[in-house]
Amino acid sequence: MRRLAALLALLLASLLAVPGAGGAWAQEPARLVIGASSLTAEGRDRGRPRPMDLRLTLDRPAAWRVFLVADPIRLIVDVEGLDFGDYRPEQLFGAELVPAIRWGRFEKGWSRLVLELPGPYRVSQAHLRSRAPEPQIHIAIEPVAEADFAPRPSATAALRNLPDPVAMPPAEDRERLTVVLDPGHGGFDPGAVAEGAREADLVLAYALDLRRELIARGIDVQMTRSDNRFVSLESRMTIAREAGADLFLSLHADALPQGQAAGATVYVWNPASDDLAARLLAERHDRDDLLAGVDLSGHDDALATVLMDFVRTDTQPRSENFAAFLTSRMAMAGIGLHGRPVQGAAFSVLKSPDIPSVLLELGFVSDPVDRANLTDPAWRARMVGALADAIASWGRDEQQRRGLLRQ
């Protein structure tokens, strides 16, 4: 199984790696010239999508890329090293023409701008005018019929930027458990917000407390973020692989329409789940993390998909076993649980076939009772203790399982 997992990592690295762009423009970061940048639309607003022009003026040329993605429909513009300064997205001239606009640091020296669009579009022009008084990225988009919308295929973006294979000792030969904690959202993505409570801040506080508790118990801990920064979904998965994680635990405290969800809920990977709340949460997670989609089911990756399904026959039961430990310890600690405390969902951060992975909704900030608990230090301490107990107990169970497998 270890050899197969290693083969899978090598295969994915070769299939999905995207070479970096930059080269000749490796120098001081470019800065956005906000006063000379704009978003404009053609014609009068008649309640229908209109052709639009995005112009981003920079103080120097920079490598860049642009593509469209779906669910929701977005125009993504990545610029290497772009410094947005203290400017806010709403300060861009014409920002009110689109449902939402966001920008910020993205990954490995890149910055990202995201425009949510009012309907399906195609990119009709895209070029960098480097000979102008100031370099300018010009992107023209025009509305198209739903059938003609061609967003970027996401299979090749799924595990982009995989690290080089790392020589790790076999998991059963390592005495210390390695856990990667993943506080959701962060940076310019606050997650769910209700009555002043921000999901990104709440889950980070829980993760930091849990890290301290686990380290005190002799467990190695890595975090996908330890401060208020944005980390893409694919980067969170990569961090777990680089750490040689035995377990990946993603923490959230989301929002759903009133009456849809309350109480702590544990999610494991299940792409066939048809639960409405799980689908809404999956859309929120992928939307708020500004990803170009993480979908490993593309036709071009049929071989990789088969290998992943095979590897998951080992990791999926272990994920489900951890979910059972988690709900048991939370119940013992008097933590209020959802009516169905363990559910399946197609959350992108659960897609790693080689690492047991679970996403925990600590509670829902949209629910008044959950929100009061989530912001209560005493309740947080109780939850952190239950999580640490579950992780430590699962780790001991894993050691026993490995011992039986060696016999």
TrEMBL record:
Q: Which catalytic reaction applies to this protein?
A: Hydrolyzes the link between N-acetylmuramoyl residues and L-amino acid residues in certain cell-wall glycopeptides
Would you tell me the Gene Ontology cellular component terms? outer membrane-bounded periplasmic space
Q: Which GO terms describe its biological process?
A: peptidoglycan catabolic process
Which E.C. number(s) belong to this protein?
Answer: 3.5.1.28
Q: Which InterPro entries match?
A: AMIN_dom (IPR021731), MurNAc-LAA_cat (IPR002508), N-acetylmuramoyl_amidase_3 (IPR050695)
Establish whether keyword Hydrolase is in the entry.
yes
Q: Give, as one word, the top-level EC class.
A: hydrolase
List, alphabetically, the Pfam families matched: Amidase_3, AMIN
Protein name stated in the entry: N-acetylmuramoyl-L-alanine amidase
Q: Give the organism the record lists.
A: Paracoccus siganidrum
